[in-house]
Amino acid sequence: MPQQPEDRATPAGTPADDTPEDDATAAVWDRLGADGGLWAWGDADGVVPWTSDDGTDLLPLWTSAADAEAECRADAEPGERPVFLAVDELLAEVPDWVAAGVAAAVLQPAAGRAAGTVALDELTDRLLRAQVDMRG
User: Fold this and answer.
1) Separation between Cα atoms, residue 72 and residue 59, nearest integer Å
2) Which pLDDT score is estimated for 22?
3) How far is CA 79 from the centre of its chain?
4) What's the sign of the alpha-carbon dihedral 31, 32, 37, 40?
5) 27 pLDDT above the threshold of 50
6) Are 109 and 66 in contact (CB under 8 A)?
7) What is the Rg, in whole angstroms, of the alpha carbon atoms belonging to the chain?
8) For residues 61 and 27, what is the distance between their CA atoms, to the nearest angstrom?
9) What is the mean pLDDT of residues 108-112?
10) What percent of the chain lies above the pLDDT cut of 70?
């Protein structure tokens, strides 16, 4: 089982807060490569997708447990918590998310804003690149 990275919250004023979307998204991919995975919100049964205002199911992903906790704790169900998903685990889950109707991943959501939203095929591409780079 991969070791979880040190939890480093994204401080205010960093890409998720005030940098153009492309730079903020790039920062998420950089952390994915550095940490070997991303954080989601879930429980013993798996990751909890969000439903957007238009009814689209989205997979929220963060670069730290603290960021996930800050965004989700107030509305959490019993047993829900930040869950670290290593690249291999993220890749293994994509088919299940597709089958469940999840349309995309929302990256680093906070206070109604996000670093970006990516379709699951783009997420898969990024995960595969990270996997190759980590093994390289």
Assistant:
1) 13
2) 80
3) 19
4) positive
5) yes
6) no
7) 14
8) 13
9) 90
10) 85
CB contact burial 112-123 (16+ within 10 A = b; e otherwise): eebbbbbebeeb
Measured distance CA(23)–CA(28) in Å, rounded? 9
Exposed (0-12), middle (13-18) or buried (19+): which is 94, by Cβ within 10 Å? middle
Residue 115 is given by DSSP the state S
CA–CA distances in Å: residue 9 to residues 69, 70, 95, 132 = 10, 10, 29, 26
Architecture of domain 20-131: 3-Layer(aba) Sandwich (3.40)
What are the structural domain ranges in the chain?
A: 20-131
**pTM given for the model:** 0.81
Which token pair is 74?
Answer: 């107030």
